[in-house]
Amino acid sequence: MFWVVSLVTLACVVTTLLPFVPHPHGIFRAFEFPRLHTTVISATLLLLTIVFLPTHDFAWLLACALVATLLTQLWHIARFSPFWRRRSKEFRGDPEGTPLITMLINNVKQSNCDYKAVTELLREHDPDIAVFMETDQPWIDAIADAAQDYPHRIEHALDNGYGILLLSRHRLYDHQVRFLLNPEVPSIDTMVSLPDGEAFRLFAVHPEPPLIHADTMGRDAEIAFVGKMVRYDEMPVIVCGDLNDVAWSRTTRRFLRISRLLDPREGRGMFNTFDARYFFLRWPLDHIFHSPHFQLVSMQRMPFVGSDHFPMFYKVALTDSTVGRRRVDAAEKTDIEEADALIEVESNRDRRPVGHDWENQ
Predict the structure, then answer these.
(1) What is the C-alpha separation between 188 and 165, in angstroms, rounded?
(2) C or N terminus of the chain, fewer CB within 10 Å?
């Protein structure tokens, strides 16, 4: 018992310390994902140590290591619990006089052929805006009938797992499909015009996934690039999509400081969206971040639709710019320097994106 507890405790300590290394490599960044799992395992080991090993000479050392691990992990994930202060304010205004926007965000998984589940979800919840990722031409065609109610769309079908589709009931303008740092990884940048004359900027992104044996520079640089693009935008802004990164990671927290956007998960829950196929292996990868112009009405994880990602459904209110502002974390000089360094290196690399052939194997 002692040696088993000791070895697993050592593993928990190591996986807790690795993410503190400020290097964009999967061996360090990957262990930011299972913080909740490490917390549960550490709490279980601490209980076992107290109950079954109280008289062992080194039990106190194990207990101290586990307590330190628990506190460190909780420091990162506690903000995504109902006990934390909500950074994104809950809308309590007049819905009749405030523009409300509903959004469906879904990584459909290119090789997933359950087209019916996705189209039924789109019809049932009838969002104002829907963003689908990993859409190749068969997916574009499968959604076509359900998409007829959406007069505005931006689509870029690809068979490399990075296709993207945006459907909107509201008029889109100044829109473009952008390839920020890799010519095979598109994102959508558009202005959305609402019926009452208000407008906001919408950025839909799907950066590369992390691999434990490779660097995460492509993902980290693209997320930082988007943060810098919207940092000084005076318009209301929403950034959404499958960021292939967890809400509490070094990369995402830096993005929030640079972009000056808010994460509605804070104070509400994790809303784990990946991996939808395995209940024991889940973390929050699909996000919406917004400027303080918006307040959250509701946020809901949708049912399984055959993908490895659960869809997310959001309803937000575009409020007057002077109402309900919440403080955003300020970026430090090191945040900007790190972002600039990542962008410079990645913009000079000539390579295919991570996972470009996964869905075709």
Answers:
(1) 9
(2) C
